[in-house]
Write a structure and sequence with these properties.
Helix content is about 35%, strand content about 30%. By secondary structure, the protein is α/β, with parallel strands linked by helices. This is Class I SAM-dependent methyltransferase.
Length: about 220
């Protein structure tokens, strides 16, 4: 997500956070995926997680509740301010997810919960390589994204005039990009669109790992 999109999220941060507050309460399946991902990381000896494109911090808070020492980054300073207020036990900072301010191998798990929805498919291998860089083996990664739908361009959202393009990624193409970046896909799942939650498309979740997990109990 480029600087232009970050500026858009600065404008809509407050209403966005209100809209998705407690999102996992109404999406128990999604919460179960997130918690299973955290469990995989913990069972592999992991202790540290990073939520990239964290927004107001809902996913980061879930990871922290699972016992992982969690940090979050987002390009929107307004989102980071809201996340810091909502989850004081998690460290948040403003950063570009294509250029993460962490040394190689800093984290055991990276979560990108709807963080690739503005990233073109041809840029995914580069992005995933950056996620891979900050992971220590076996290096677990969770992606959540919209799928099975056409690209949508919004000029008004969350009560503001905006210019935002939402990309609905093909799961197979995402998995291919993960493999290019050195990941092995562990699981993929798709949840049907829930009209009562105003979801525009089906939702996909992919879990992958970067290193050998055979020797990790």
């Amino acid at each position: 997500m480029g600087g232009r999109a970050y500026e858009q999220y600065d404008m809509i941060a407050g209403e966005y956070a209100r809209t998705f507050a407690g999102e996992f309460e109404s999406r128990p399946f999604d919460r179960a995926i997130l918690r299973s991902f955290a469990d995989l990381a913990v069972r592999s000896g992991g202790t540290r997680a990073l939520d990239v494109g964290c927004g107001p911090g809902e996913a980061a808070a879930e990871l922290a509740s699972c016992g992982l020492s969690t940090e979050g980054v987002d390009g929107s300073a307004a989102m980071i301010a809201l996340a810091s207020q909502g989850s004081p036990g998690v460290r948040f900072q403003t950063a570009d997810m294509f250029d993460l301010p962490f040394a190689a191998g800093t984290f055991d798990a990276v979560c990108a919960w709807y963080s690739i929805i503005h990233t073109p498919a041809d840029a995914l291998p580069e992005l995933f390589a950056e996620y891979r860089r900050v992971l220590a083996d076996p290096g677990w990664l969770l992606l959540g994204f919209q799928t099975d739908g056409a690209t949508a361009v919004y000029d008004h959202a969350f009560g503001r005039d905006v210019t935002l393009t939402f990309l609905r990624h093909d799961t197979a193409a995402v998995c291919d990009a993960l493999e290019v970046a050195g990941f092995t896909v562990y699981a993929t799942t798709k949840r049907a669109r829930q009209a009562q939650l105003d979801e525009p498309t089906a939702q996909a979740m992919v879990i992958a790992h970067a290193g050998d997990i055979d020797h990790h109990p």
